[in-house]
């Protein structure tokens, strides 16, 4: 999982895919952290991505960096604990202008039963699970 985290941090932007009804939805994200040995992302509960994940928590992220790409598939689980929210916001202080660990909007989610696949045009794909 640490290798996945480091790749996503280096890429800076990854794309999160969700489902709304029978339509895929993809948008750029940038927040990623490890907290209590889980890979977390952050959004706002008021956003459509949050509603989509609550209806269907299966998601995939994809990032590209230095000629390689990473796909992470799994179930995203909401963690409403203040400690998890505070950790993410401490790692991304610029978000504190929009979010608070004590508000009802901040949402942090961790990957459960995740499969990450590292790929490139020059090497065979490599998969890790966490």
Report on the architecture of this protein.
There is one protein chain. With 130 residues, this protein is an alpha+beta fold. The protein has one domain (2-123): Pnp Oxidase, Chain A (Roll). The protein has helices at 2-11, 48-55, 82-91; strands spanning 14-20, 23-29, 33-35, 38-44, 58-65, 68-79, 106-120, 126-129. Strands 1, 2, 3, 4, 5, 6, 7 and 8 form an 8-stranded antiparallel sheet that branches. The protein is globular, with a radius of gyration of 14 Å. The N and C termini lie close together (6 Å). The mean pLDDT is 98.
Question: Strands, helices and their partners?
Answer:
Blueprint: H1 2-11, E1 14-20, E2 23-29, E3 33-35, E4 38-44, H2 48-55, E5 58-65, E6 68-79, H3 82-91, E7 106-120, E8 126-129
Antiparallel strand pairs: 1-2, 1-5, 3-4, 4-7, 5-6, 6-7, 7-8
Which CATH top level class fits? Answer: Mainly Beta
Order of helices and strands: HEEEEHEEHEE
Question: CATH homologous superfamily name?
Answer: Electron Transport, Fmn-binding Protein, Chain A
The structural domain count equals 1
- The structural class is alpha+beta
Low-confidence stretches: none
CATH architecture identity: Roll
CATH topology: Pnp Oxidase, Chain A
Count of helix runs: 3
Number of DSSP E strands: 8
Q: Mean of residue pLDDT? A: 98
DSSP strand content: over 45%
Radius of gyration: 14 Å
Share of helical residues? 10-25%
Beginning-to-end CA distance, first to last residue = 6 Å
Shape: globular
């Amino acid at each position: 999982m640490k290798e996945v985290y480091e790749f996503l941090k280096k890429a800076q932007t990854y794309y999160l895919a969700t489902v709304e009804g029978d339509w895929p939805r993809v948008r750029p994200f940038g927040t990623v952290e490890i907290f209590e040995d889980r890979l977390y992302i952050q959004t706002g509960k008021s956003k459509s991505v949050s509603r989509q994940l609550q209806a269907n928590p299966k998601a995939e992220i994809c990032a590209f960096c230095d000629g390689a790409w990473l796909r992470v598939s799994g179930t995203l689980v909401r963690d409403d604990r203040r400690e998890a929210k505070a950790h993410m916001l401490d790692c991304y202080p610029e978000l504190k202008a929009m979010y608070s660990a004590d508000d009802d909007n901040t949402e942090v989610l961790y990957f459960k039963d995740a499969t990450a696949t590292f790929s490139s045009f020059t090497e065979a794909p490599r998969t890790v699970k966490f």
